[in-house]
Amino acid sequence: MLRWLIGGGREPQGLAEKSSVQTIGEEQTQNPYTELLVLKGHQDIVRFLVQIDDYRFASAGDDGIIFLWNAQTGEKLYELHGHTHKITAIAPFSSSDVTEEKTDLIISASADRTVIVWDCANGRQVQKVSCFHSTVKCLTVLQRLNVWLSGGSDLCVWNQKLDLLCKTSHLTDAGISALVELPKNCIAAAVGKELIIFRLSASNNGSEGWSILEVKRLVDHQDNISSLVSVNDLTFVTGSHIGELIVWDALDWTKQASECNFWDSSVHPDVQPEIKLSQSPHETSVQHLTSDEQCVFAAVGKGIYVYNLQMKRVIACQRTAHDSSVLHIEKLPNRQLISCSEDGSVRIWELREKQQLPAEPVPTGFFNMWGFGRANKQANQAAKKMHENTPVYFLELVGDLIGHSSAVQMFLYFGELGLATCSADHLIILWKDGERESSLRSLTLFKKLAQSGDLQLRL
């Protein structure tokens, strides 16, 4: 295995341009990922990684090929050929047929307007459908109902055998960009600026009959919805290209809270402002959202933000977490975040509580949009008193993983097995805990020596 000690901050991209991105030295004591294993096979941008089980994952991208990998060893298990254009969506699907053993499947959609179901045990095609009128942009599995959904110019409901159970009428040419499961057999679909709520119904007479009904359209966003995530059975969140974040009630689909000042330093006094003449949509777009039920973690432009759902405000942020747009963000179990960017970097952050001195001014937070700009001293004093009793957090950079030469599209976290990243450089990298890997090698060597000694004694 290739061993690479990771370190070094990133240099400014030009002499006239001074980067405000945090840097970290070569001594990254809190960064365990000091070994990497490079996985080659793809011939184009690798955009998707999906976890199959505790040690297997699949990768897919613009070359139309899907690879199955072992996350522990980096071994290529299978190479799946069947699509003729780039992969546009991929999802894992475990069969729950009571008459058969559990089967791990993968569903993939492509710009060739086909969808294929693959068996992960042998890498073979189970079924293929070519009846789509447009490219399928997203796939969602409803494991409880043992069905899956495809979103494009319409919404289709399928069973495991790729029988079409029901579909909506043509929605728009732009089509559905994201789907999320809601309670009571409902689905939220992002279609441009709109959020459409659908309800699925199965036939009560024991037949295979299904129906899908549009029940509501939510038009609160001012721009196209770019990210959609379920928090729990009560809440889901959407983000748009102009930096709007809306928290929704998952049962009655009403708006619970909203945020639209991510990029505005005037409503975040504890962050050093940047001198910019204007903000382009590229810098304010919500590229990715994830949640741990208490907070929503948002990749907005070059920054990452932690939005507390109970407080209804941003409690920590790094406005320039990377040199370019952040494409993916995830929360780890140990109060750490990982983010990856178009700049080719993968960074580890730790959410820490800031120790405030009594004389230190308390930031008002982001979630103050209704009172912002109004001369309401009483409200401001009440808000200040509330925030004085509220802990203030910050994100500290604890690791910088430099290995990719182009945009890192996304990553998967495998716990003690490490981290898998994919990139526009056609590569997948497995980042490993150097101390753990060294201990495993020592243990293996010790066992071999012990077995060798045993053999000599017998001779």
Automatic annotation (TrEMBL):
It comes from the Eukaryota. GO terms for biological process: autophagy; regulation of autophagy. It holds the Pfam family Beta-prop_WDR41. InterPro entries: WD40/YVTN_repeat-like_dom_sf (IPR015943), WD40_PAC1 (IPR020472), WD40_repeat_CS (IPR019775), WD40_repeat_dom_sf (IPR036322), WD40_rpt (IPR001680), WDR41 (IPR040102). GO terms for cellular component: lysosomal membrane. The keyword Signal does not apply. Its main location: cytoplasm. Keywords: Autophagy, Cytoplasm, Repeat, WD repeat. It is found in: Cytoplasm. The keyword Electron transport does not apply. WD repeats lie at residues 39-79, 80-128, 319-359. SUPFAM superfamilies: WD40 repeat-like. SMART domains: WD40. Non-catalytic component of the C9orf72-SMCR8 complex, a complex that has guanine nucleotide exchange factor (GEF) activity and regulates autophagy. The C9orf72-SMCR8 complex promotes the exchange of GDP to GTP, converting inactive GDP-bound RAB8A and RAB39B into their active GTP-bound form, thereby promoting autophagosome maturation. As part of the C9orf72-SMCR8 complex, stimulates RAB8A and RAB11A GTPase activity in vitro, however WDR42 is shown not be an essential complex component for this function. Component of the C9orf72-SMCR8 complex, at least composed of C9orf72, SMCR8 and WDR41. The complex is formed of two protomers, each individually consisting of one molecule each of C9orf72, SMCR8 and WDR41. The protomers homodimerize via an interaction between C9orf72 (via C-terminus) and SMCR8 (via N-terminus). Within each protomer SMCR8 (via DENN domain) acts as a bridging protein between WDR41 (via C-terminus and N-terminus) and C9orf72 (via C-terminus). The C9orf72-SMCR8 complex associates with the ULK1/ATG1 kinase complex. This is WD repeat-containing protein 41. It comes from Sylvia borin (Garden warbler). The gene is Wdr41.
